[in-house]
Amino acid sequence: MFQRGVQRGSDGRYTVPLPKNADILPNLGESREIAYRRLLGTERRLARDENLRKQYVAFMEEYLMLGHMRKIEGADEESRKRCFLPHHPVVKEASTTTKVRVVFDASCKTSPGVSLNDALLVGPVVQEDLRSIILQSRTKQILLVSDVEKMFRQILTTSEDRPSQSILYRFSPDKEVTVFELNTVTYGTKPAPFLATRTLQQLAAVEETNFPLAARAIREDVYMDEVITGTDDVSTATCLRNQLSENPRKIWQYWIPLELI
């Protein structure tokens, strides 16, 4: 299910196809109108909270700057059948990084009553359960913890699948509404957790010879985007940390530096 269509670029980044239900996919209908109405509703909400509006715009500017979405113009806008995903802010005051995140609603129904998520497959669970990972970490003398930075957005989707992840947006209400495509695995789509975790597993398998400690940690000690691993001595802990986040080849480009506890 995962290997078909998966590619790895020269920079080490993976491109994956969205796993689709071929029987339901053709039933996706018109979605632009509801995405437009939802955009206007989001803009009204943002107009009532200037701080929220600034954070929303900053989030979308970063999305565009990092190449995680691209602007669609001219004939390219109409050349492909598109599924438009509404979007809205989610505020997490407890977050130490991004307090406002933009969530894309892949469960929004198109005109026949079928959503993009209805047409996608969820994929199996490929990681250990969280309880086992935590219990295993408590047996180690040195604990290393971290999380994966922008986990889903580190993985590209194929160009064929990107029209299914179209959005309407404008950075200011006095601008014209523009079509964008999301270029990466998108939070809110049904297979996103599987694609992200399975890609990490694939990365571990490919790079195990070069980075055995990091590969083992990824296979056994990661739950979604949380790294909870450890060792019994300082030298091994340092080597593991270097393999995960500081190796010269930057193979583990998903990772932010680990904290040793």
Automatic annotation (TrEMBL):
InterPro entries: DNA/RNA_pol_sf
Source organism, top-level taxon: Eukaryota
Name of this chain's protein: Peptidase aspartic putative domain-containing protein
Organism: Aedes albopictus
Lineage of the species this protein comes from: Eukaryota, Metazoa, Ecdysozoa, Arthropoda, Hexapoda
